[in-house]
Specification:
46% of the residues lie in helices and 18% in strands. Strand 6, helix 9 and strand 7 form a beta-alpha-beta unit. It is globular, with a radius of gyration of 23 Å. With 361 residues, the chain is an alpha/beta fold.
């Protein structure tokens, strides 16, 4: 079908054999529409290259909206880089409404760094309309949430939920279930035999993130459910200190020859994977989280058996979208919005990327 820049809602309705009202509800994601009608309308829109006239609707907007995102530092290929990609995609779609997004970053392994970023955010409070928060440091996030509640600034959680808080919405996975899936994949790859190395990977000595704590809880829960009598060997590994890590791991494997599996609960499983590759420990089955470049390389080389992924680009995209709809049209989203938990193996990881995930919206 030839694409036409002058296509109208009535044309899409006619081609899809639905009412104009149905087309409008599909475009703006409101009201009840059958899955079949949604599919037909979107298919026609794609065929004719139709894009909603956001500028026309923006005439009803009272003022520009300034959103602030608080997430960890990132490099290309990182987990948080994918989150930022989704955020910027949403910002592009909503820029005609006057939506602008500022990103404040912090060291994901430093609570002090997070608190410094929060201080910068609080200095901007008078010009901030909504906030998206990566919830790595639970107690500090709760304090920030109370500050935002007092000023009636809506906020969205991403990465992991803190259920008792007054967030507008949460976009992410069920972290406990994510831990259960990690345990299931690891035990299957070990054929339910041997001890398990649990690596806590941080900068120097720090506490586990909100996400990591919940995953670990789910991991233990699955072991208990299966009645698996396993020896968990816990180690502290430090990012950027290869000598320390090698010393700790050499001693651990020497003292615990029965270890056959290993797990990490953040995106840094490559720290342990690099060691396994260097020592040629093919017998150790490693399961980790997040499809970042160093993890993918080790997955492809066979030193990581599975990665559990959580579509960070969709989390960021939906967070911006939810705040924009609330601020511009007073449309409140569902509070808890759980995204799929993806199991990525050497055979299927190449089909998983931030662009294809956003096409699922």
């Amino acid at each position: 079908m030839q694409k036409n820049k002058n296509i109208r809602l009535t044309d899409i309705a006619r081609l899809a054999n639905v009412s104009v009202g149905t087309v409008d509800r599909v475009i703006h994601n409101r009201g009840r529409v059958s899955e079949e009608n949604i599919r037909r309308v979107k298919e026609i829109m794609e065929q004719v290259g139709y894009k909603p006239n956001l500028i026309a609707r923006s005439l009803a907007v009272k003022k520009p909206c300034h959103l602030v995102v608080l997430i960890p530092d990132f490099r290309p290929g990182d987990y948080w880089s994918a989150m930022e990609y989704g955020i910027r995609r949403a910002e592009e779609e909503w820029e005609s409404y006057g939506v602008k997004v500022s990103v404040l970053t912090f060291d994901q392994y430093s609570k002090a760094s997070f608190e410094q970023a929060v201080s910068r955010l609080q200095e901007m409070t008078e010009t901030v309309d909504g906030v998206i928060v990566g919830t790595l440091f639970k107690e500090a996030v709760i304090q920030l949430s109370e500050h935002l509640d007092a000023r009636e600034i809506p906020y969205v959680y991403v990465d992991s939920d803190i259920e008792e808080q007054g967030r507008l919405a949460y976009y992410g996975t069920d972290s406990v279930v994510g831990g259960e899936i990690g345990a299931r994949m690891l035990l299957a790859s070990m054929a339910f035999q041997g001890d398990i190395l649990v690596a806590h990977i941080q900068h120097d000595k720090g506490s586990m993130s909100t996400q990591g704590q919940k995953r670990y809880s789910g991991f233990l829960q699955y072991l208990k459910q299966q009645g698996y009598e396993v020896n968990l060997v816990k180690v502290e590994l430090w990012i950027g200190d290869e000598a320390h890590n090698e010393q700790v791991l050499d001693e651990t494997f020497r003292n615990h020859p029965g270890i056959r599996g290993a797990v990490t609960f953040n995106s840094s499983c490559y720290i342990l994977g690099d060691y396994l590759e260097k020592r040629q420990k093919h017998e150790i089955r490693l399961v980790g989280y997040d499809l970042i470049d160093p993890n993918v390389r080790l997955l492809n080389e066979g030193y990581v058996q599975a990665l559990i992924a959580q579509r960070p680009e969709l989390q960021g995209y939906n967070g911006v979208k939810a705040l924009s709809r609330l601020l511009l049209f007073d449309e409140k989203p569902q509070v808890v919005n759980l995204l799929p938990i993806d199991i990525l193996l050497k055979e299927n990881y190449q089909f998983y990327n931030k662009v294809s995930n956003l096409l699922l919206i």
